[in-house]
Amino acid sequence: MTDATMTAAPSATTERIFNLDMLRGLAVLGILAVNCLAFAWPGEIISMREAMPFAVDGANETALWVERVFFEGKWRTLFSMLFGVSIFLVGGERSDAVRGPLLQRRLLWLLAFGLAHGVLLWSGDILLHYAYCGFIMMMFRSWSAGRLIKVGGGIILALSLLGGLTLWGWGAMPAEMATEIRASMADTLSPAGTLAKIEQVRGGGYFLYNLTAWIQYQTSSAILIPVTVSLMMLGLGLYKSGFLSGRAPMWTYILAIGLGAANLIGLAILMGQNLAAPVEADTTRGLAGLFSAFAVVITLGYVAALVLLARTPVKAVLAIFAPVGRMAFTNYLMTSVIFVALAVVPGGPMLFGRAEPGTLWMWVVGVWAILIVWSPLWLSQFRMGPFEWVWRCLTQGRRLPLQKSAEG
Known about the structure:
18 helices; disordered N terminus; mainly alpha; single chain
């Protein structure tokens, strides 16, 4: 993604590439912190406490609070924004007769990777969704920064407001109505139903379970196309405006950090109240859901803070995430391989249905460490990650050099 032709001055180009790689690396790690619960448990427990066959207290409550406040929705949002940037870096302007077809082939191969990844390994695959959203995004890649930000940002804020009001309405509904709805969903969301599905998977039924879940996810993810494309537009607009490289006016970073921090603090307080309350209660009357719907505001605050920190000595610390981002495609697929192996492969830990949220963080941090250590080691010998290399060879229709010694 970062090998596209650059036209800026060398120093600006270096900073721009570093920021994109660093942000992409953090996004990959952040997404794993959200996905880990779905790797280890049936999908319905992720948002429905009624289906959780474990107590939401102590370490479990803290783990869920950290995931939902600091990670859920924020890093996938960033990954989507950065994918919009890659559409332009690979395909160039719409008038580019050479790079345009290259981008189309790249997206077609991504679609194939996404199909294989989702059907065979991980039902929560996002690559297929990004591939067909990328074909839509292609049409807007030559828009100006202002137009991309206004249209993409406007749509995502409107959709966030709509989703937030829906969640607020759900949380604020009369207690009697909420009780009736929960009763009608009791069979699907009961811990007993969750445990039955766990036994099926642990008994060797992971492939069928994953395939069924993947079909359901792909069906429902179609409604996310406007959200994803809008985020891609917003990300490309921020790239073209210089925001992602630290060249935007300082007030824009301060505003983004301020709004993001305000939303994050409000969400932290409200989510803490929600998790501490009984299952059947929503002490925030839906406000936690309203705040969580505006994940994009928190993401922009994260980005602004990280971009400013990259201009300080803290850049040396942030640099450990850049190699992870240079190999984002490989590392994303690796997290699936590792966690599926940990979850369901006989002879391993068999975490599926066992690892409660508090325990899962130990595994997440361990995998983070693996990715942070192995990425620079690999890149010290090779030009790109192994799956990036395969993807690029397929896209260009020829074998490209991989080892650094093969260059020149």
